[in-house]
Write a structure and sequence with these properties.
single chain, about 270 residues, alpha+beta, Cation-dependent Mannose-6-phosphate Receptor, Chain A, five-stranded mixed β-sheet, 3 helices, membrane, signal, transmembrane helix, Cation-dependent mannose-6-phosphate receptor, glycoprotein
């Protein structure tokens, strides 16, 4: 009896947690495409361009004696080379990539209000072939060693535009990409196979059937022990039924030959006995 109570509780708990913890995840289908189970998702493919989208920002350092200018370059969906015209700069953006940052500085000279401009460097910040969508599909994460760059996808009825969203954490720079293509829409991709759908439906119905059957027999009908299992006779005979079905298929869908039955004396009241 104790085992059956534990079994009943486990079945109910498993079913409830499966429904409560179920969360739709935007699964990556392509470098810039993710889709939810219902067929909607994000597709940035139309946002691909021959050039990088860019966004500028600056920071004041050293008590106002230095201005650091940063330009972020972003190319969604595909890694391409960025054109660097100054060959002598420190440059880690030499291979195809999706995000690069150009940093330059303006330093105050001894003469009042005179600044000297220095080109600075080009810094690699991420590539598409190692990027991943967030579970909710609202952003794309570009790993870069110990740090990462996050591009937040903003649905906007405007031209494609890049903006710096947050620089508060140097190891987690957040950019925002505004685009019509960042809006949720139906994604034209091959969905779940028919077999997978049928299996999901089948096991969902089995779990629902077991939970409702156990609860009904235990709490409404007062059953105890193994009696709480709905249709216990069927489940007990199921292995034999499967065996008989398998033997039927192995015999070429032919019924097994029946042997002669035991001899039976004719009915004394039948016509043949007269």
């Amino acid at each position: 009896m104790g085992f059956l109570n534990i079994f009943s509780f486990f079945v109910v708990y498993l079913s409830c947690t499966s429904f409560v913890n179920a969360k739709d995840v935007c699964a990556a289908k392509a470098p810039c495409v993710c889709a939810f189970p219902n067929g909607t998702g994000i597709d940035l493919t139309p946002a691909k361009s021959t050039t990088f989208y860019s966004a500028d920002t600056f920071m004041v350092k050293n008590n106002g004696t230095q201005y650091e200018l940063s330009t972020y370059y972003y190319h969604p969906c595909l890694d391409i080379n960025i054109n660097v015209s100054q060959p002598n700069l420190l440059n880690t953006c030499t291979s195809p990539l999706s995000i690069c940052r150009h940093v330059s500085t303006m330093n105050l000279q001894n003469v009042t209000n005179i600044f000297k401009f220095e080109e600075g460097s080009y810094d690699f910040m991420g590539r598409t072939n190692i990027s991943k969508f967030s579970d909710d599909g609202d952003s794309i994460v570009y790993p870069n060693g110990p740090s990462e760059t996050i591009v937040v996808l903003q649905c906007a009825n405007t031209e494609n535009r890049l903006q710096v969203l947050s620089l508060s954490e140097p190891d987690k720079i957040v950019l925002a990409f505004y685009s019509r293509d960042a809006c949720l829409k139906l994604v034209d991709l091959e969905g779940r196979s028919t077999g997978s759908t049928l299996l999901i439906v089948f096991f969902s119905l089995v779990i629902f059937y077991l939970v409702m059957g156990v609860c009904t027999k235990k709490f409404l009908m007062g059953a105890t022990g193994v009696e709480v299992i709905p249709n216990l006779g069927f489940w007990s005979d199921l292995p034999n039924l499967v065996k008989d079905g398998w033997m039927f298929l192995c015999n070429g869908c032919k019924l097994p030959a029946r042997g002669a039955g035991p001899a039976v004396s004719p009915d004394p009241n039948s016509y043949d006995s007269i």
